[in-house]
Specification:
This protein has 281 residues and is an alpha/beta fold. The chain has three domains: 66 residues, no CATH class; 131 residues, Trna Endonuclease, Chain: A, domain 1 (3-Layer(aba) Sandwich); 54 residues. It is built from 14 helices and ten strands. A hairpin with a 2-residue loop joins strand 5 and strand 6. The longest helix has 17 residues. The protein starts with 6 loop residues before the first strand and ends with a helix.
Length: 281
Amino acid sequence: MNFNEVAITKASGELTTFSEEKLRNSMTNAGAPKDQIDSVIEEVKTKLYNGMTTKKIYQIAFSLLKKGGRHLAARYHLKQAIMELGPAGFPFEQLIAELFKSKGYATRVGEILQGKCVTHEIDVIAEKENEHILVECKYHNEQGIACNVKIPLYVHARFNDVVAHAIKNPIFAAKKQSGWLVTNTRFTVDAMQYGSCAGLQLLGWDHPFKKSLKEQIDDYKLYPITCLTSLTRAEKLQLLEREIVLCQDLLKNDSLLHKIGIKSTRERTILQEAKQLCAVY
């Protein structure tokens, strides 16, 4: 069988051909060693068939990676883990606020600002001495959904309304004003074209090139607790309810594991996975 001619079904329902290179790159990015990657690819190939979903391929790879190291599977699970932060978008907003904090910004989440025409709830506000950034987060808990051009059009209009009022204050007028749109999925071509033309900063799962959301989460080790393979779904939800969003947060508040009923033997496994994931030793 020519594996590169096998048709697989993407989350959007579109058909594409199986790409060994994409599968290999995704596991390489998760930090898996070459021999383990080779083994996973060979196993996937034995189960390939026309119409197979990308979700099924992911499940096979995830299961095999977990045998080689939970933290590898956790990193490989990142995209799905972010979608498990929902259904509401507040934990995602907290993650984005932490991303800006990691870059040296002071941040606030979910504030109401007055615009020239109406008031607006701003998901994340990030500030430095000479910068004032307003961030709109578009969170999706399902794959295959892209932000089309209507979203940046709407976000840009809100940004302009807020700035028109804010610059009446000399403190804000002296700062560079920037609008951002952040999503955990992808942007359509029209959306990216509009953002570039209008001066609206777009940050998505794989955009912009080499500075995407995925790459920045990896760079700053901002892995959500939903990545952890050693936690059950119910345990993850209990931690999210206590506003523990990131593995870094869990490592700083490890007593919470005991408080939600996790026994000490499992605590060690969970914390070890979190430490390996965040490269904390």
